[in-house]
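JOB MANIFEST
job_type = single_chain_structure
chain_count = 1
residues = 343
[input]
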Amino acid sequence: MIKPNTKLDLKSGRVIITAYEAKKVLKEILSNVGCNKKEIVSISEHLVDTSLCGMESHGIMRILEYVKQYENGYMYPDRTTTVKKNKYGGVEVHGHGGIGIPTMNIAYKKGMSLAKKAGISAISIRDVGHTGRHGYFADIAASQGFLTIMMGGGNRKKWRQVAPFGGSKAMLPTNPYCIGIPGGNLGPVILDFATSKISGGWIYAAKSAGAMLPKDCIIDSNGNPTCDPDDYFDGGAILPAGEQKGYGLALIAELIGEALLGPATTECNWLLITLNANQWRSKSKLKTTAEEILNELRKSPPLKHIEKVEIPGEREREHRLCSKEKIAVPIRTWQQIKMLLKN
């Protein structure tokens, strides 16, 4: 068991929960809100695996928001994903207002199937709720020999979360990107990030745990720096990652999500591009060269306050391995999750 890779400044402690117990609790909660068996398995396993990987912002804490969204009609349980071509010839994966995790599983499988035949594919994912940790899907695809590029946006009117560079008010969603590519000896390289300084999930996690956030991530309704998640929910905003760079990436994703793909419903519209990575080099040569590059970087001398130079994606797999199937959950958050069983 290792310490969670958290961004929360906790005032209270944590409770250790086994993955088995967490799945059992989540499955009962999801069953109570009307999810079908496939949804229950897909969502509970995804959230628990994400927590085991140390991604607290997208782990089992998310069930709190999911239940609210089911209850208020923002998302619908018991939905079946469909795949079709639109009138322009584009392939679209529709979630029909359901949660996005099982839909993303289907979308990545479809993207890989098409790319295996044609070398490359591009599909849109529409009308879905929260889609979970994208690195989970990209890791699976990269392990099977595919390069994937995912971006989402197009629902700024409903999700005013992030201020544009130089702005003081929330205007854009967090518009994430995820890129996965086959890597070296330790597995794929996965770059999974929001275009904001902190993902919305961390703010919800801080709120549920009664914790503060890191400095220089959010501003209050007057544009002043703050670490209090309540200030964000009271009209504040998240700052863009990398200033103009994060803002630029978010803007492109917003244009792709709405101008290119059309009106977004439920949460974002998503564009998934999948390439067969073995079109240019053999699998063995790709892996050998990737390992040479990655190993050079791992051996890079770290700064005094940094333990080691890491490769994107390896931290999550290492955390999962060292977790020994146990999750350290903030006490308040686990209490709130258990309370859902009584409702």
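[summary]
The first strand starts at residue 14 and ends at 18.
The domain at 82-316 is CATH 3.30.1370.60 (Ribosomal Protein S8; Chain: A, domain 1).
exit_status = 0
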